[in-house]
């Protein structure tokens, strides 16, 4: 029994929340295929871009993975965050993080991005799209996010993609900022719903 516990623990690493209420707290990260948490340098840049818009925002972390983007948003003043993760194991790990931190204004949903968006629970002010690079966001996910029932007018959508093949974005997504770091292309878009 003891060796099994060690084996499970060996498959979990940790990353720190950069700033805000939970600064320095550690978020658990499963060692799972396709799970690639946003690096601290990228997160710092992203949340500097979003700083004026986070307080009171409704946030959607659509491919949550470790949940670090959603937790960082709550830490910096988001009013509510929905974290969507297809893997039940990863979703349980995120849920455990929320309990450990005492976060009660975030909810984990075990579903695919398409399944979750079909529930029409929006609108959100900020959306994080950081799927496994092998997958990329589906066209239906991006179509959903152009609807006024999904995002507020002028909502912010953040996308991480592989540097060698950035994803084509819909016309209503206007690039606001973008950078490249260590093979990752990361961009922040403003969405027009009209």
Topology:
Elements: H1 2-10, E1 12-16, E2 26-30, H2 40-50, E3 58-61, H3 68-75, E4 80-85, H4 88-101, E5 106-110, H5 113-117, E6 124-129, H6 139-144, E7 151-162, E8 173-181, E9 184-191
Parallel strand pairs: 3-4, 3-6, 4-5, 6-7
Antiparallel strand pairs: 1-2, 7-9, 8-9
Describe the structure in your own words.
This protein has 6 helices and 9 strands. The protein is α/β, with parallel strands linked by helices. It has one domain (about 1-190): Vaccinia Virus protein VP39 (Rossmann fold). A 7-stranded mixed sheet has the order 5-4-3-6-7-9-8, with helices on one face. Strand 8 and strand 9 form a beta hairpin. The longest helix has 14 residues, at about 90-100. It starts with a helix and ends with a strand.
Short description:
The chain is an alpha/beta fold and 194 residues long. It has one domain: Vaccinia Virus protein VP39 (Rossmann fold). It is built from 6 helices and 9 strands.
Main attributes of the structure:
alpha/beta, Rossmann fold, 7-stranded mixed beta sheet, two-stranded antiparallel sheet
Number of domains: 1
Q: Tell me the helix content.
A: 25-40%
Going by CATH, what is the homologous superfamily?
A: Vaccinia Virus protein VP39
What is the CATH C-level name?
Alpha Beta
Secondary-structure element pattern, one letter each:
HEEHEHEHEHEHEEE
**Terminal residue distance:** 58 Å
Number of helices: 6
**Annotated CATH architecture:** 3-Layer(aba) Sandwich
Question: In terms of per-residue confidence, which ranges show pLDDT below 50 for 5 or more consecutive residues?
Answer: 1-10
| Structural class by secondary-structure content | alpha/beta
Mean pLDDT: 86
Taken from the alpha-carbon principal axes, the silhouette is globular
How do the strands line up in the largest sheet? 5-4-3-6-7-9-8
Specify Rg, calculated over alpha carbons: 16 Å
Number of strands: 9
């Amino acid at each position: 029994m003891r060796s099994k516990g060690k084996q499970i623990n060996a498959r979990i690493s940790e990353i720190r929340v950069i700033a805000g209420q939970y600064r320095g707290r550690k978020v658990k990260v499963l060692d799972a295929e396709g799970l690639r948490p946003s690096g601290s340098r990228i997160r710092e840049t992203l949340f500097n871009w979003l700083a004026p818009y986070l307080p009171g925002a409704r946030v959607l972390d659509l491919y949550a993975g470790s949940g670090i983007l959603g937790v960082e948003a709550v830490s910096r003043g988001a009013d509510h965050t929905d974290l969507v993760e297809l893997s039940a194991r990863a979703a349980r790990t995120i849920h455990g993080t929320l309990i450990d931190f005492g976060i009660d204004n975030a909810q984990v949903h075990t579903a695919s991005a398409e399944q979750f968006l079909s529930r029409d629970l929006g609108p959100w002010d900020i959306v994080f799209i950081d799927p496994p690079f092998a997958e990329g966001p589906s066209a239906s996910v991006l179509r959903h996010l152009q609807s006024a029932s999904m995002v507020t007018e002028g909502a912010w959508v953040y996308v991480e993609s592989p540097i060698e093949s950035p994803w084509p974005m819909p016309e209503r997504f206007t690039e606001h900022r973008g950078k490249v770091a260590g093979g990752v292309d990361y961009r922040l878009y403003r969405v027009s719903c009209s």
